[in-house]
């Protein structure tokens, strides 16, 4: 018996559109912001487990990636990654910088050309991939580091927010 293959019509409809992708990213950012807010002030820049960095330093890394990253995606101009964000030494300053970065993402997102997501780029002089993979790296990196924050909070006796409440 001969099997006839069915032709599947090709469509250009994406699984997720750019606004949904932005909402997904911002949902993760909102959850990370809540984790920062729950962190005890006196532990944010000093507490560490097993050689991991303090959560405040981790947040500085995320800030160094997200804002400059969306500008890089929009312009394809990339500076080297600089995680030394001077002056962000309190929870209030980190939260303020987080909120400013959220606005920066919202401002620059519409400027990212659609074709950039399929172009091969080198972000921050070190991460080479296509644009959408670079953006997914930004998101995945945040999720990974937020997980470290969850471990810290649980160790300190603080219940973290549910990870699905984005």
UniProtKB/TrEMBL annotation:
One of its GO terms (molecular function) is metal ion binding. The lineage of its organism: Bacteria, Pseudomonadati, Bacteroidota, Cytophagia, Cytophagales. A divalent metal cation binds at residue 145. This is DinB family protein. It comes from the Bacteria. It holds the Pfam family DinB. It comes from Lunatimonas lonarensis. Belongs to the DinB family. InterPro entries: DinB (IPR007837), DinB/YfiT-like (IPR034660).
